[in-house]
Specification:
It contains ten helices and 16 strands. With 359 residues, the protein is an alpha/beta fold. The strands form four sheets. It has a six-stranded mixed beta sheet with strand order 10-6-1-2-3-16. A hairpin with a 5-residue loop joins strand 2 (24-32) and strand 3 (38-47). Helix 5 packs across helix 6 (244-253). The longest helix is centred in the C-terminal third of the chain and has 27 residues, at 260-286.
Amino acid sequence: MSFFDSLISTKSAPVAGLDISASSVKLVELTQGRPGSFSLEHCAIEPLERGWITDGNIEKFDEVVEAVRRVVRKSGTKAKRVSMALPASVVITKKIVLPAGLGERELEVYVESEANQYIPFSLDEVSLDFCVIGPSQASAGDVDVMIAAARKEKVEDCRGLAEAAGLEPIVIDVETNASRIAVNRLIERLPGRGRDSLVALFEIGATLASMQVLRNDELIYERDQVFGGAQLTQMLVRQYGFTFEEAEAKKRSGELPEDYASAVLQPFVETLAIEVERALKFFFTSTPHNRVDAIFLAGGTASLPGLAETIAQHASVQCQVVNPFDGMNISRSVNKGKMAREAASYLTACGLALRGLAS
């Protein structure tokens, strides 16, 4: 779903996925050939300094705008139209059941009526959107409809940021929706095309790890936990006396002390594996399910050496780091080695690029 779409249909113009998080800006441009066939044309990551974006709020607007401009230049894209997303924490979503066969205007009336029950502020203060998911499994003859609402200023901040960087935002989605779009391609590559498989997706960011459990394109559980890559940075600061900024720079460059692997990395990986195991236990105790069939890891922290293997040992479930470009053609303009190392960071941006192609 999107909070707004361009009023002018220019499908021939390229659309890039632009993912702005607390720690970096990611850009992905895809093209589509035959149905289900995609090519990665451009991608790039630009780091953000700590404090520029906090809890989804843009604290340093001009600095973030410049970072967006840099990532566009670095990627080599010519796209000016972008698909973006808001953090799930600033969006209220609710699945409702409505009668099938309603027209667009009738749906809007029903959605606005239902939204009044779930949104704790006036509808005049929010951007509201909805999409029909499909026939309801719980109520024959009805349809499931997902509604989403965000404060207008959040949408306008996102839109204004893109426009200040010389870009045209044509879609604003929700980050978790975008990541699901991208990961569903990967689930289909599991045995049996992933049909009926329970897949736990962990996106490990700087300070927050989001868990989504998916089955047959449906989200059946989600939970956020406070742990992420910033904790590794803090361990580097304590162990070696670096400043936070120095520790972040050394993480990116790989210029770390000789005992880093044993003194810092291994304990951190073990801690992360325990947190993932704990999150899975919450899922098992709060739902009828007692297993997952696979664990997918995404985010900049996901690619840490030994993390997937350690999680697999703790959870007794196969675990893999996602590459959202798996099965795609890769343009010669893309540095394949660098892309492969950073692939897990691009999940949401890739989902936004796919979302943009469908707009």
